[in-house]
Each structure stands twice: as structure tokens, then as C-alpha cells.
Amino acid sequence: MKITHRITYYLLVLLKKWISTLSPKTRYHLAIRLASISYHYIPKRKGMVINNLKRAFPDWTSGKIEYYVKRIFQFFMHNMIQFFAFPKSWDGIEIDVKRENILHEAMNKNKGCILISAHFGVWELFVKWMGETNYRFTGVALRQKNRGANKFFQEQREMSGVEHIFRKEPIEKMESVLIGNGILALVSDQDARSKGIFVNFFGIPASTPKGAALFFKKLRSPIIFGVCVEIGFQKYEIQFETVKPISDNIADITQAFTSIIEEKVRKYPEQYFWFHRRWKTKPN
Q1: Cis peptide preceding 87, ω within 30 of 0
Q2: What is residue 5's predicted lDDT score, i.e. its pLDDT?
Q3: Do 263 and 202 touch, CB atoms closer than 8 A?
Q4: Read out DSSP for 228-259?
Q5: What ranges in the chain are assigned the alpha helix state H?
Q6: pLDDT for position 194
Q7: What is the DSSP pairing of strand 235-242 with strand 137-141?
Q8: What percentage of residues in the chain have a pLDDT greater than 90?
Q9: 170: which DSSP letter?
Q10: Where are the domains of the chain?
């Protein structure tokens, strides 16, 4: 590991130790302050969020968009601070789980389970809860270029008992999770460029990863959707949904879970990661 990567790792560990000493309210107020700084001094990110909100919600007034942009910065800054303070950050929280039977029914088929999620809500808390079930839970993650940062983030997530497979690793490694009756978690809401399939997201064609549909067609593992949303201070709700495509073709399967993501985002727009260019790739 390069010396700069080692330094990054130790700085992140020190930051974690400091943030972990703070109370929940202090961490929240720190997040609000840092979000305000980011909002005012990172115009590129702010502009991207504004443009995305205008496309998704064309009927919103400029005042409403401005309100939600601030909420989005606050939500994700608090998320990041909570992640650094894990596992202490989840002490004293309340979690309500909705439709947990969907997860158990899928796993009872003994074909593994493809769990679709999104850059939405409190992913790290969702992973923590899943890691405490009796099921093998494996997430597909993007490897950080900085090996020190990658090591830190991987260690944080694996504290919950979750396993990792990194993108670009052999596809057989992912299939083996399903064949072994495990849960393969795919975050399937980012622009997939020319490799994706176009489905509607907020009425706009969006290039979407088709891996979930391909796994389903090959292995017949059931597909479900799961997220964790924040419903109050220190209060969270884990929600499961059944993915019901109108047919078994790749487009219909992908549209089915993308429509669920849209439904969640419409209900909790401040909890979606609007910082990426979801509609970057255009249909030919």
C-alpha cells in the first residue's frame, strides 16, 4: 500500500475515533454545520442536485427546490457522520421493520435472493440490520482507488457481518452467493452507460444496470426490494417490497424495481442521492 494510502487510512481511523466520542445530538448539529458549508461552497454538486430535482419534479417552485436541496445536503452529511461513528452511532436507535415476511418467504425458496436497493435512505443501517439476520448477506461494492480509504470503508461495513464482492470481480463469484442460498445485494439505480437497459425513471429514459434481471433469468432466484428510511431523530424504518414484473424479459424486470425506487423517492425526496447524473446516458 502506498504511503499516502496508509496515511489516508490512519486519518480516517482517527476521525472515526473522534466522531465516536460525540453524542447523537452533537453529531447531528455537526452535520448541519458541515452541510451548510458544503451547500454554500461546493456549487458544482449543488447545481447537479438542482438540475436533477427540476427534471424529476418539473412542477416544483424554485422555493421548494431550494428547501429540498438544503435537506438533501443535511441528510447525507448526517449519514456520513453516522457511518464514521459506527457502531456507536446506532446505540439507542429505534428500528421498525415493515413486511419482513417478504424476505423470509424469498429465502424459503432455497434459491438465494436478489435484493435490490438504491442510493437512498440509510444504507449502512440497512446493512447492519441485514448482517444480524441468520442469512448470508453479500453486497456488491465499488472498490475505492485509494486503498487506505477502501480498507477503512470495508472494515466499517464488515463489522455488521456483511460480506463484499467488488465490481469487476468474476460474475461466478456473485452467482455462487445465490447458488449457496445467500442474499446478493445490488444497488441498481446509477447510470449504466451503454451497458445498461433504458427504463423510465420519473418518466425519463434512464440507463439502468440489468444484472439483477440476468441473474433472475439464469438462476430463477427471487427478486425483492429493501431500504431503510429515516422517519425521525434516531428513528428508522426498514421496508421490504416484492418485485412484480409484468413479464420475464429484462426490460420489464428492470422497470419493475425502478418503479419501486421512484415511488420511495417521491415519498422521501430528501433521502435520495441526487448528486449523481442519473440521466447522463441518452437513448440512441
Answers
A1: yes
A2: 93
A3: no
A4: EEEEETTEEEEEEEE---SSSSHHHHHHHHHH
A5: 3-20, 24-41, 43-56, 62-85, 100-107, 123-131, 147-158, 171-179, 211-219, 250-267
A6: 93
A7: unpaired
A8: 83
A9: -
A10: 3-271
Contacts of 246 (CB under 8 A, 6+ apart): 252, 256
Closest CA to 56 of 203, 270, 229, 272: 203
The three grid cell numbers given for residue 64, joined into one nine-digit string: 421548494
State how far the Cα of 20 lies from the Cα of 82, in Å rounded to an integer: 9
Read off the pLDDT of each residue in 158-183 and give the average, rounded to a whole number: 89
C-alpha distances in angstroms, 147 versus 8, 80, 124, 143? 9, 19, 20, 8
Q: Provide the 3-class DSSP secondary structure of residue 23.
A: coil
101's grid cell = 415476511
pLDDT in tens, 12-54: 999 999 999 999 999 999 999 999 999 999 888 999 999 999 9
In this predicted structure, the answer to whether residue 225 has a pLDDT above a threshold of 90 is: yes
Half-sphere exposure of 35 (CA within 13 A, CB side): 20
Report yes or no: 96 and 167 within 8 Å, Cβ to Cβ. Answer: no
- Cell numbers that stand for 1 in this block: 500500500
Give the integer Cα–Cα distance in Å for 84 and 72.
19
Q: pLDDT value at position 2?
A: 87
Side-chain half-sphere CA neighbours of 49 within 13 A = 27
Determine the Cα–Cα distance for residues 135 and 85; give it in Å rounded to an integer: 25
